[in-house]
Amino acid sequence: MESDDVNYYDDNYIAIIKTDGTAEIIEFDVEYWDELPDYVAAKHLDAVRVMPLYVIAEKLGLDEHITGWVDDKGLLKDLDENPVGCKIYPGKLVGDMILTLEDDNYKPKSFNDLDVVYDVLEKLGITEIEENFDDEYDEEDGRFDAWS
Fold first, then answer.
1. Average pLDDT over residues 66-82
2. Is the pLDDT of residue 146 over 70?
3. Rounded CA gap, 2 and 117, in Å?
4. Torsion 68-114-116-118 (CA) sign
5. Model-level pTM?
6. Interatomic CA distance for residues 109 and 13, integer angstroms
7. Contacts of 79 by beta carbon, 8 Å cutoff, 6+ apart
8. More confident position, 28 or 146
């Protein structure tokens, strides 16, 4: 699955896999780590580092690992099970799960290629994907003529 020829001002993306089995791709720079838990209504996140995500990263030729992030209090909050998360995690995984990249030093990073995000979601079996981009621009609207 590939995105349509999309041009965006900012190339930093995360994906959120929801408890209904759908996903949302959001423009987000993981450099602003403290804002990330808000996307799953959490105060703190736990990392989900599992072999199926590492295998997907390897198959796609990525230099970083793919890591999931979930609400660290999800079980206490009695959140719904995440069907995609439960397929890749050896236990019960609940709540929405954020996907990011992560380097060998466990530093999270945003995806910088939208097509890679689509490829990851496709390999996880997710077909219903919503895009949520705040910084869309139309190449023909004239805002960038001064830069040429």
1. 97
2. no
3. 9
4. positive
5. 0.83
6. 9
7. 19, 71, 94, 95
8. 28
Helices and strands counted in the chain (H then E): 3, 7
Average pLDDT over residues 102-127: 95
Q: Give the Å distances, CA to CA, from 144 to 88, 130, 135, 148.
A: 43, 27, 13, 7
Task: Read off the tokens for 119.
Answer: 């490829």
Q: How far is CA 80 from the centre of its chain?
A: 19
Contact between 54 and 66 (Cβ < 8 Å): yes
Residue 86, token pair as written in the block: 């439960």
Q: Residue 37: which of 69, 78, 82, 76 has the closest Cα?
A: 69
DSSP string, 18-51: -TTS-EEEEE--GGGGGGGGGGGT-SSEEEE--H
Give percent of the chain with pLDDT exceeding 90.
Answer: 78
Query: Is the pLDDT at 65 greater than 60, yes or no?
Result: yes
